[in-house]
Amino acid sequence: MQYDVIVIGSGPGGYICAIRCAQLGLKTAIIEKYKTLGGTCLNVGCIPSKALLDSSEHYHNAAHSFAEHGIKLENLQVDLAQMIARKSEVVSQVCKGVEFLMKKNKIDVYQGKGSFVDKNTVKVTKDSGEIEMVTSKNIVIATGSKPSSLPGITIDKQRIITSTEALQMKEVPKHLIVIGAGVIGAELGSVYARIGAKVSFVEYASAMIPTMDSTMGKELQRSMKKLGADFYLSHKVKTVENTGDEVVVTAENPKGETVTFTGDYCLMSVGRRPFTDGLALENAGLTTDARGKIEVDEHTLQTKVSNIYAIGDVIRGAMLAHKAEEEGVFVAETIVGQKPHINYSLIPGVVYTWPEVASVGSTEEELKAKGVPYKSGSFPFKALGRARASMDIDGTVKVLAHKETDEILGAHIIGPRAADMIAEAVVAMEYRASAEDISRMSHAHPTYTEAFKEACLAATGNRALNA
């Protein structure tokens, strides 16, 4: 078969790219090695983790705050099997939705492992061993990423697990040791802490979510301590051993001393690596860099082979589903001769704990390092009527604005519905709004977004009205 575009990988970047290509009149095919479409995000990442996060939050609220709301329950229990089953049903529905979109947009789907024969030809090896050849004028690599580990540590998927296995647990851990207190570790650690597990975070950096503004990490750690979580920051993990019914983690603490942690499960959440295994990139004249990423032209997302593009986790930048989606649309429009644009500095990051954490633009640490003159305004959720009404008073909104022009340079939120609230900051910053612009816009009362307005008011140099 001859196509205008073949997309390898059906995650958010891949399937969105394929849809946009089809919308633009290109004959399009997508290749997926797994039996369901949707990639890591829909199958073993974003969607299932959010399903479990919601279920565990419902249980936690029922156990700890329903009585104050006037709701009395007896014999409250965790049915982990049902939680997992509901999560799986959510995944099934979303993946079927992608399958429907492929049919709706007349995109041919090939199930099997795609590998390059040359720069225009891809071999699809089906599970049965049957091989099919497809050719295309353009090819897009959108194969995503896989969980990383640490040198010398073997992930056995039994006691020493990744995020994939953490989404399929048969029991609530007695003591879950989480190596890495970044986004994935924080989210899955919070799931099991809410439903009764003892959770210990062992983190190499000196703070939680170390790539985000330091205020966010401090606030999130304070909140998660309320769940009973322990934190061992600035600890370097040396070994992880499955001893049968337990896992023993050996680490070096900040003083250089050897310390050990014993639990029944260990979750490795030390990041992800680009997944290009088995693509036979060399047959197309492509290579990867030292980090396993494919180099692309920043203006076109073309690889060094002009008809081959790469998007998402296999190229530079944050490993985020929505970043991959934007790149998928970008590539489709580039192929037909349009001039699309992505502002990489304004792609938001989110941690779906509760309270949620969301961030866009520069952190305070980055502005200091660059010598940019700035001013900061904050507003705590405990001073917000809407947050008081829902009993979600943990967290704060922090806005960073240029000291001279008042342009918003960064917005960092930890609190209820932060993941949704950050969109207002993204819009404001895309249009280069000032903190005063936002502070003079009417925000419905009572809403969580009033906290963003108040933080902007504080950043202008005036005092917030409700704090």
TrEMBL record:
Pfam families: Pyr_redox_2, Pyr_redox_dim
Enzyme Commission number(s): 1.8.1.4
Binding site for NAD(+): 180-187, 203, 271
Gene Ontology CC annotations of this record: cytoplasm
GO BP terms: 2-oxoglutarate metabolic process
FAD/NAD(P)-binding domain segment(s): 3-328
Gene3D superfamilies for the chain: 3.30.390.30, FAD/NAD(P)-binding domain
SUPFAM superfamilies xref list: FAD/NAD(P)-binding domain, FAD/NAD-linked reductases, dimerisation (C-terminal) domain
UniProt keyword list: Disulfide bond, FAD, Flavoprotein, NAD, Nucleotide-binding, Oxidoreductase, Redox-active center
Major enzyme class: oxidoreductase
PANTHER family recorded: DIHYDROLIPOYL DEHYDROGENASE, MITOCHONDRIAL, DISULFIDE OXIDOREDUCTASE
Family: Belongs to the class-I pyridine nucleotide-disulfide oxidoreductase family.
UniProt protein name: Dihydrolipoyl dehydrogenase
